[in-house]
Amino acid sequence: MHCYSTSKAGVRVLTTDLAFEMGPQGIRCNSIVTSCFATEMATVLTKVPEFTSFVSGRTPMQRWGEQDETVGVVIFLPSQSTSYINGTVIFFDGGMSCQV
């Protein structure tokens, strides 16, 4: 799990560093951090009751995300409507990151 956590942290730092470095050229850098989504890759995990229960228990929405729920944020983030958003990490995780 430490490799996964380290890579997620790296994406966050890279997002802010690139936003700072590339901003003067008008290039924005933002990222979307997701939690568990019911995808083809996660099919094996969705069949493990203990893991499904763990995810649901740590997510305030008490469920996995669905692939079609990602469309809105993926279309929104690179749109002109967000031209002043730069260096932002959007947590798209059903509230999982709110855990204390």
Automatic annotation (TrEMBL):
<dbReference type="GO" id="GO:0016491">
    <property type="term" value="F:oxidoreductase activity"/>
</dbReference>
<keyword id="KW-0560">Oxidoreductase</keyword>
<keyword id="KW-0521">NADP</keyword>
<dbReference type="InterPro" id="IPR052178">
    <property type="entry name" value="Sec_Metab_Biosynth_SDR"/>
</dbReference>
<dbReference type="InterPro" id="IPR002347">
    <property type="entry name" value="SDR_fam"/>
</dbReference>
<comment type="similarity">
    <text>Belongs to the short-chain dehydrogenases/reductases (SDR) family.</text>
</comment>
<dbReference type="Pfam" id="PF13561">
    <property type="entry name" value="adh_short_C2"/>
</dbReference>
<protein>
    <recommendedName>
        <fullName>SDR family oxidoreductase</fullName>
    </recommendedName>
</protein>
<dbReference type="InterPro" id="IPR036291">
    <property type="entry name" value="NAD(P)-bd_dom_sf"/>
</dbReference>
